[in-house]
Every structure is written in C-alpha cells, then in structure tokens.
Amino acid sequence: MKSKRKSLKYAKWGYIFILPFFLSFLIFSLIPLIDTVRYSFYEFYRSGIKEIGPNFIGLENYKALLDSDMLKYAGNTLILWLIGFIPQIVIALLLASWFVDIRMKIHAKQFFKVVIYLPNLIMASAFAMLFFTMFSTNGPINSILTSMGMKNPIDFMGSTFGTRSLIGLMNFLMWFGNSTIMLMAAIMGISPDIFEASELDGCNGRQRFFKITLPLIRPILAYTLITSVIGGLQMFDVPQILTNGQGSPDRTSMTLIMFLNSHLKSKNYGMAGALSMYLFVVSGILCFIVYRMTNGVDSDEFSKSMKKYEKAHKLRRKKRL
C-alpha cells in the first residue's frame, strides 16, 4: 500500500511538470486552430472602418478561392520548392555518402560539417536581405560584372527566371547542411558488416549506394521529404523580402502563404481561414503520399533480407576463422 501511495505522489509531480506545455498548446495552438476552421465558413472581413460579419456562408469562401488565382500561386510554390529541393537532396546525399565513406580519407571532417551547417543558423530574413543587396541593379554582383566589361547591369529580380533562381538558391543554401547532417547520421547507423559483405560479393560503389544505402535510410529520407514539403508549402519570408511582398515579376514568385498574408492584411479572416484549411489538407495528403512512397511494405522486406544477409556474412567469417 505504501509503495502505491509513493508512486501516486511521484505521478502527481509528473503531471504538474507537463501541465505548462498543455496550457500553452491549448491557448496558442488549439484554440486558434479551432477559430481558423470556424472562420473559414463565415463571411468575416473589414470594408474601410466597417466590419462585416461574422455571417455563416458555408463553403462560399472555399469556392471563391478556387475561382481566384490560388491555383496559380500553388504552381509558383511548387516550382520554387522544386528549384531549391532537388539540388538540396542530391548534394546532401552525395556529401553524406562521401563523408561517411572511410575509403575517401577526408581530413578535417568536423570543420567541413560546421561550415556546411552554418547557413542553417542564419535567419531567412537576413539571408533574403543579403541576396537582395548583392543581386540588386546597383549591388556588388553587377559592379563586378560591369568592371569585367559588361555594358548594362543585369536585372536579376526583373525576370521570372532570375527571381525564382535566387529564391531556389537561397532555400538550397539554407537547408542542404541540415539534410546532410541527418543523412550522415542515417548512413552511420547502417551496420558496417553489410558494406563489408557487399564488397566481398563484388559490389561497386554505385550498386552499394543504390541497392543498400538508399533503401536502408528510407525512414530519414521520408522525414527529410515530409519536413521539406511542409516547409515548401509554408514558404514566405524569402520571397516576401526579396520581392517586397509583391511576388514580382507579374506575381510569378507569389506563394500560397504570401497570398494568405494578403488576406490577413485586408482583414478578410474568412478567406484566410479557408486558405489555411486548403493548405492543411494538401500538406496532409502530400505527406501521406511521400510516407507511402518511401516506407512501403517492400522496405520492411528489404530490412529483413539485409538482416539475413548480415547473419550469413557473420557465419561465413566464423567458418573462415
């Protein structure tokens, strides 16, 4: 009886310690989320100094968004994400495999890891301001080009290709270090016996990477892809600062969150709530698709076959000894 009372007393302190988290989650996350869902079904906006609503209108906000330029901005968001993510994941995989490979004999690995991760520590707003200054018409990049003989400065942010390329480059530089470190940790978690067995069986570097490394790091790849998809849908600060909130040129760099921010600025809370729900549903669907693609039934079967392969290799080594 005494031991039960003591355990109850200890449990009480555990609940007390986690109570602040649940209170902050309730106040700052759950209640605003419920209000967002509720406002999406209401006409609620400000016209001048007059506030209209909230008046229940059902799915009218959702229909109005489909008739607006939302799909165009969704396409912009997808293009900007792909421009930054594809080189990010390719280079992160290459760097992770090189740094972990003992045969490469890379010196000062810790220094390179720090250098790779450093851009991730810089705020996105500061990064965007830096690129805005560097690639402006009177910036240092154009100054260098004109000193090298170019007659007219390049308007990097005056063309669709230039603006999207800069946004993609910034997203790549900010996040490829984080992806590299995570993928390195995943590759280091693979048993060295598997790589040793593959070498004895005559696998080359390409076969070892595509047939062993990639399938075994699927969980971390899934996490990287899912967080990247969510981050891509929430892309705001870099294009907002680089284009001064206009999505120029011709709104080709306007993202969904910038579109959402424009509704919040105009105090149209009904449309903003409906757009937030669209983003929530789309991100959930995309994350589910990515998870199913990277963590299917075949990955479990592959893991089991790799364990059998490793056991067989250990038995062969024991017989040789």
Automatic annotation (TrEMBL):
Record's subcellular location: Cell membrane
Residues annotated as transmembrane: 12-34, 78-102, 114-135, 172-195, 216-236, 269-291
The organism's place on the tree of life at top rank: Bacteria
Primary location class: membrane
PROSITE patterns: ABC_TM1
One GO process term, biological-process aspect: transmembrane transport
Any one of the GO CC terms: plasma membrane
UniProt KW keywords: Cell membrane, Membrane, Transmembrane, Transmembrane helix, Transport
Pfam families linked: BPD_transp_1
Domain ABC transmembrane type-1: 74-290
Annotated CDD domains: TM_PBP2
Membrane topology value: Multi-pass membrane protein
Family indicated by similarity: Belongs to the binding-protein-dependent transport system permease family.
Protein name, as recorded: ABC transporter permease
Source species: Blautia pseudococcoides
Lineage: Bacteria, Bacillati, Bacillota, Clostridia, Lachnospirales
